[in-house]
Amino acid sequence: MTWMHPGGSDVVRAELDVRVDGRYVIVYRKPDGNEVEVGGRYLEVVPDRKLVFTWVWRYSPEHESQVTLLLEPDGDATWLTLTHERLADDAQCEDHRRGWTDGIDSLERYVA
To answer: Cα(99)–Cα(93) distance, rounded to whole angstroms?
Structure first.
């Protein structure tokens, strides 16, 4: 909740049960005051290495996509590879690209 601010949004609620078949819910408050909710289920959890989970916006439950995070140690640093697949269309791909880029940039500033 401290560092994730995609598109200037704030995380106002985050519930995470990070284990295989565990669920999560994240609620974002957008700059215009509207709130949006995303949730899903963890498919694969390898501590300090890999996280795979589904991604479903509450307003469009028919579109379930999948996110994979890979972490690779590199000396005192860590490489993060994020893949978000099974998105509905090009517009959704672009929205998520911007959102993830903002979120990762926020994380980089947070850990710097």
So the answer is: 10
Say how many domains are in the chain. 1
Alpha helix positions (H), 1-112? 90-111
- Looking at residue 39, which CATH number applies to its domain? 3.30.530.20
Chain centroid to Cα 110, Å, comes to 16
In whole angstroms, give the CA distance from residue 49 to residue 33: 35
For the whole model, what pTM was predicted? 0.90
1 within a domain of the structure (yes/no): no
For the chain, give the longest Cα–Cα distance: 42
pLDDT digits (tens, 9 = 90+) for 54-77: 999 998 889 999 999 999 999 999
Neighbouring CB atoms inside 10 A of 53's CB total 21
Range of the structural domain that residue 62 is part of: 6-111
